[in-house]
Amino acid sequence: MPIHMRWLNSPKNVLLFDYQEPLTLDEIMESQKLTLYFLDSADQPVMSIIDMTGLTRLPQRLLSSFPKLGSHPVLGHPNNGQTIMISRNRTVAHFGDIFSSIYKRIQIVPDWPTALAQVYRSIDSAGQR
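Given the sequence above, the corresponding structure tokens read:
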């Protein structure tokens, strides 16, 4: 599966996603199901970092699949916290902006240092480190 998921830290409050090509809609939907397992196993809100720097193209029919992706229970899970997407690809970031404006707020950043700085600022402000 070209989507790899793992915890960033032992408090289990930051979940990392690494998206690689070739990526299909079915794999994105399957990752949503797996994310529910991770969120259910946490005892606090979980921030997500989605690394899309390995993508140069997106699955076909992604935009028309947004309603299905956006209505998945993972988005309303009580432990689903802030989401940060890393992408330097303008098309990928644009799709992230569209999804963010309709379904769930996603902060889009250009690189890992920016993503990690944002995560640790949020963790520190919530006293979760």
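The chain has a mean pLDDT of 93. Try to locate this feature in the token string yourself.
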